[in-house]
Amino acid sequence: MDSNASPTCPDCGFRIFNRRYPKCESCGALLPDSIVYTSAERSAIFEAERLGREAREREARARESDTVSGVPDELAATETIIRLS
Ligand SMILES: [Zn+2]
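Above are the sequence and the zinc ion SMILES. Below is the predicted complex in structure-token form.
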């Protein structure tokens, strides 16, 4: 059997796409543990998504502060050169 195939509800045969939801979205039957993610797996996924989001936000903020701090530095250097000449 192909283990990559989408699992189906043992009660109604509905294809399970959302394995984080413990019940069949069609008939509401409780799905076996082998189909749904365990709470540990769910929190691991949630944590990974949160870390990924935070990393992207940090990256965006870093880019912003680069542009903000980069320009005044250049201006300061130009001013120093003008004062020296
Ligand atoms: Zn079902």
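Residues 1-36 form one domain.
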